Amino acid sequence: MSLLRSARFPAVMLLIAAAVGLILANSPLGPGLAELKSTHLAIEGTPFDLSIAHWISDGLLAIFFFVAAIELRYELTKGALREPRKAMVPAIAAAGGVIVPILVYLAFTNGTPSATGWPIPTATDIAFALGVLAVFGRGLPGNVRAFLLALAILDDIVGIIFIAVLFTTGLNPVWLAVAAGLVLVFFVLSRVQPRTTTDAALRQAALLIIGIATWAAVYQSGVHATIAGVALGFAMAPRKADRLRHRLEPWVNALVLPIFAFSSAAVMVPSVSMSELSPAFWGILVALPVGKIIGIALAGYIAQKALGTQSDSHLPIGDLIAAGALGGIGFTVSLLLGELAFKGNAEVGAEVTLAVLAGSIISMILSAILVTLRARSYRKAAAVDAT
């Protein structure tokens, strides 16, 4: 299980799963795979009749967001973001890492229907970014990892807000109220102390049933169903949530995220020339690696100067640029945002998926080089100090 919890493992699994999905989709097995993804699985006696692809993106991915929400709350209350002053620099850097990629994307797509995809290049994949940092960052000081973690978490919060606000269709207030009521029951029940082993088992079963019912109510409300995972993750009693996260994390890393990556990346490469690719493709391809570096590094540098960051948490410009490159690894949330933004346009949706993969890979390569150089510099400095 230790391997499944390591920072490197999720990044490797996601990359392999995405590569396999892309290869199979463009092989003779491609049509069969596309048909499988579009196959509908219905639950008898309910309104739930989703394709396999939607069961993965709307259902399975809710587990990932549940685990992510628990981690977000921990960092906000006990971790890297618990002190407002320490959180200010990564918060401002994260804002730059959202605004600049949006501007870059709109520079390519302004005045076209593709402009609606502006949220796509704003996300940072925590698993990938920390995985690259773990592989290539031996010797980097701890404040670099803390900065990146805070940055990625804040990016995730922005992504969650975008999903909840921008991709809500046909809002049903009644079902939304039902979902809110169920979250409240979940909140209270998770804090009830069972007296016996039987009581504990019954409470766990009840929490599971309420969790599933909450997901169903959120789905029926018109809000994207993954938001149910976020709400439940924040609502659960902290100690129980942390223990459950510890149990779920290996399964999320080994199954949930790779399955989503495989499904999302399983698109056929459009048979068009470079000049015929949509503005959305070029906007994402440039916004992820370039927009993130400029936005994060520039905003982080200005924030440190303006706030007078203490020396023990101050990051040199080289570290900020490396963190910006790591921030360009959008992957999971960017793929989901791409699916939502271009749900009705399969051709552009396929190009967007390819752009997210390509932009994230470029960012991975850039960040691997930059992190290696920064780590080498710190190791040399440490060796000089030791002599």
Automatic annotation (TrEMBL):
GO process terms (BP): regulation of pH
InterPro entries named among the record's database cross-references: Na/H_antiporter_dom_sf, NhaA
Pfam families on file: Na_H_antiport_1
Record field: transmembrane: 52-76, 88-108, 120-140, 147-167, 173-189, 201-217, 223-239, 251-269, 281-303, 315-337, 352-373
Cellular component per GO, a single term: plasma membrane
UniProt KW Chaperone keyword: no
Keyword Signal: no
Record family assignment: Belongs to the NhaA Na(+)/H(+) (TC 2.A.33) antiporter family.
Function of the molecule: Na(+)/H(+) antiporter that extrudes sodium in exchange for external protons.
Protein name in UniProt: Na(+)/H(+) antiporter NhaA
Record gene name: nhaA
